[in-house]
Amino acid sequence: MPEERIFFDGEVDHTDQAIAYLGSYHRTSYGGCKPGPGDMVIGASSLVAKANGVAHASHVQEKLTEMVQLNEVLYACGLAASMKGFRLPAGVWCSDLLLANLCKLNVTRSPYLLARLATDLAGGIMVTMPSAADFDHGEIGPLVRKYLTAAPALSVEQRRRLMRFLENVALGCGGVCLLAESVHGACSPQAQVMQIRADAPFEEMERCVRTLLASAPVGN
Ligand SMILES: Cc1cc2nc3c(=O)[nH]c(=O)nc-3n(C[C@H](O)[C@H](O)[C@H](O)COP(=O)(O)OP(=O)(O)OC[C@H]3O[C@@H](n4cnc5c(N)ncnc54)[C@H](O)[C@@H]3O)c2cc1C
Q1: What is the mean pLDDT of residues 179-196?
Q2: Domain 14-215 fold
Q3: Which backbone phi and psi does 87 adopt, to 5 degrees?
Q4: Distance from the alpha carbon of residue 107 to the mean position of ligand 1, in angstroms
Q5: CB count, 10 Å around CB of 141?
Q6: Ligand 1 atom nearest residue 186's Cα
């Protein structure tokens, strides 16, 4: 049996370190791969607000801005984990462990908030859209198209496709990539919580506060 690709051979003392390093690569990558579909959901939500004729409303603008905030924080975390990477004695680079795990833990939450906001902006039509058989029906098809026409920014056909896209990513098989994989890919959230707990500098933070307490005047 070839042995050149055996990396561990009884060195169990290094197991937790190896898992932490491997996890840091994978969890950093989520700051790159999940903001992509997030951008698609934000773009679709912005278009759907135009199609629904409510893009000017202040709460709609706030929700779209919140979506950008949620999504870009994921990207920023991935970048930061990479930028603060460190070189291992073997010469390879490893992401910052704390930031990589924070990146992935945020990824387990923010896409669900994006999907919620997209669902809010789309309206119930996202899940009650008439079927293709209705659209193609000789008698009711023209009526369906007539009554589903909204703001002129998008045609009824574009609005229909937009709703199907959002339904798919929020509730359909597109949610595998946007949602379920965001939770369980690179391990379920508790794995990130454990690593964050291990790497967060609690003692250093306590020491700073102790120093502050020693010099701060005691109030009434
Ligand atoms: C879409 C998708 C793509 C994926 N892609 C890949 C891939 O490319 N490569 C790859 O290697 N893997 C991939 N995975 C697998 C992924 O790493 C696992 O799904 C993830 O690690 C969770 O494991 P599990 O599914 O067996 O769930 P479980 O481990 O059964 O987790 C379910 C729940 O049980 C909890 N739990 C589990 N064990 C314990 C315990 N001992 N004590 C207390 N609580 C516990 C978890 O925290 C979680 O809340 C993918 C998964 C998905 C959903």
Answers
A1: 97
A2: Butyryl-CoA Dehydrogenase, subunit A; domain 3 (1.20.140)
A3: -90, 130
A4: 15
A5: 15
A6: 17
